[in-house]
Amino acid sequence: MSVIMVGMSPQVFRQSHAHDHAAWEIVLNLLGTGYSIIGETYFEFGPGTIICQPPNIPHTKMSEEGFIDVYIQKTSFPLARPAEENGPLLFQDDSDKSFETLIMMAHKAYHAGNNNHKMLVESLSEAMDQLLISWKNDDPDEKDIDQLKNKLIESFSNPEFTTSELLAEGPYSNDHLRRRFKKSTGQTPVEYLTNLRIEYAKKLMSENTLLRYSIAEIGVMSGYYDSHYFSRIFKKKTGITPADYLKKAASGDNPGK
Predict the structure, then answer these.
(1) pLDDT tens column, 63-115
(2) 1, 68, 193, 236: which could form a disulfide with 9 (CB 3.0–4.6 Å)?
(3) Distance CA 58, CA 14 (A)
(4) CA–CA dist 200, 171 (Å, integer)
C-alpha cells in the first residue's frame, strides 16, 4: 500500500507554514490563486494547478485571497526521478476536471472507512498516477488535436452537432488545424466524426436483440435525424445496409467490417 493520507484544507487559508514530509505529496489547488515556495523556487498556482512535491523538501503556500486544496501523500510516485534530480512537477487539470474527480473520490473513500476503502483509494491513486503519466508524455504540439478529438467524442451522438460549428470556435478556426488533425489521425475531422457515429451504430445493432431499437432510432442515437441519409452513409462505410447488418447480427453471423 502506497497511500498514507488523503486530506483537504479544513478552511480557506492565506498561508501555510513551511514544512516537509518523508513522503510524496500530490496537491490539487481547488480555490484561489497565489504561489508556492518549494525549496528555494517559486511556483504560481490557481484553480486546477497540481503540484507533485518530492519528499524532504520544505514547502509553503501563500495567497492574498485565500486558497483551498486537497492532497494525497504516498510512499512512492511513478514520475519520481533520481534523488539528485528530484524536484516538484507541475500539471494543470483538464477542462473535465478529471484529476479533481479522482482525488475527491479518493478523499471521500479514505474518510468513509468502508470495508474495501483501502483498495479503492489505492486504485484511485493508481488512476491519478496514470493520468499524470499520460499528461507528462503528451506532445504539447498535439494538445489542440487531443482537445478536438475529445470534443468530437463528446458530441458525436448529437444530430445537430457539426464539425463546421466546432472548427468555428476559438483555436479550431483554421485550415492548418484540419491538416494537422489528418496528419495525426489519418482522417479529417468530418471523417473522424462519421466513423465515431457509424461504429456506435454498429454496436447498437450488435446488441439489438436485447435493445430492440428501430433503424430510425439507431440513426438518431448515432447522430443522424434523416434515416435515409444514415442508411446511405452506413452502407458506404460497411458495405451493407443497416437492415442487412441487423439481420446478420440477429442470426449470430459476423456482419462484417
Answers:
(1) 999 999 999 999 999 998 775 566 889 999 988 899 999 999 999 999 997 77
(2) 68
(3) 18
(4) 28
142 secondary structure, DSSP code? G
Pairing label, strands 59-74, 3-8: antiparallel
Nearest of 67, 69, 32 to residue 50 by alpha carbon: 69
The radius of gyration of the chain from alpha carbons, rounded to an integer in Å, stands at 24
Min mean pLDDT across 102-111, 178-187, 193-202, 227-236 is at: 178-187
Q: ∠ at Cα 189 (188, 195), nearest 5°?
A: 90
Give percent of the chain above pLDDT 70: 91
Reading phi first (left if > 0) and then psi (alpha if -120 to 50, else beta), residue 206 is in alpha
User: How far is it, in rounded angstroms, from Cα 2 to Cα 26?
Assistant: 13
Whether 33 and 45 have beta carbons less than 8 Å apart is answered as yes
CA angle 207, 209, 211 (to 5 degrees): 65
Long-range contact list for 216-223, CB < 8 A, 24+ apart? 218/242, 220/159, 221/157, 222/156, 222/157, 222/197, 222/198, 223/156, 223/157, 223/158, 223/159, 223/161, 223/193, 223/197
Cell numbers 492548418 correspond to 176
Most distant CA atoms of the chain, gap in Å? 69
CA triple 106-110-116, angle to 5 deg: 100
Q: Kindly state the cell numbers that stand for 30.
A: 481547488
Do 41 and 18 contact (CB within 8 A), yes or no?
A: no
**Model-level pTM?**
0.63
For 29-51, how does the pLDDT look when each residue is reduced to its tens digit (9 = 90+)? 999 999 999 988 899 999 999 99
Distance CA 8, CA 101 (A): 14
Cα 23 from chain centroid (whole Å): 26
